[in-house]
Design a protein that fits this description.
By secondary structure, the chain is of the alpha/beta class. It has helices at about 25-40, 60-70, 90-95, 115-119; strands at about 5-10, 15-20, 50-55, 80-85, 105. Strand 2, helix 1 and strand 3 form a beta-alpha-beta unit. It is globular.
């Protein structure tokens, strides 16, 4: 299952929407990190919120989870709030290993995510 991602910014709401799918390699994580940093140019620095939809993402190898975790820990890209939309309990558990910080929530449905992020 090939890795893919889509990043959309909403300047008005200072929101970054990320959709990830497939199985990532280290090169895919590097591609994603470059694209995400580029997307941040379109929102306010250090005040943005992020919605990460990982419902179509495969369970990842531990080294890939670690690579995503290292990337997300960077103060240069850290969002004020981070919401994950997870398709399964296992995906949620894996996403919870990515970050141990305040203002992170995990959802099974996309219905309430933006409400929480924008409140």
């Amino acid at each position: 299952m090939r890795a893919d991602f889509d990043i959309v910014t909403d300047r008005i709401n200072n929101l970054v929407k990320v959709k990830l799918s497939g199985f990532f390699t280290a090169k895919d994580v590097a591609r994603f990190s470059i694209a995400y940093r580029d997307a941040l140019r379109h929102v306010a620095n250090h005040g943005h919120v992020t919605l990460a939809d990982i419902r179509d993402m495969a369970i990842q190898a531990q080294e890939i989870v670690a690579a995503f975790s290292d990337f997300m820990a960077s103060p240069a890209i850290r969002s004020r709030k981070l919401a994950f939309v997870c398709g399964s309990t296992l995906a949620r558990l894996q996403a919870q290993r990515l970050t141990a910080r305040d203002n992170v929530q995990f959802f099974q449905s996309a219905l309430l995510v933006e409400t929480w992020l924008l409140e």
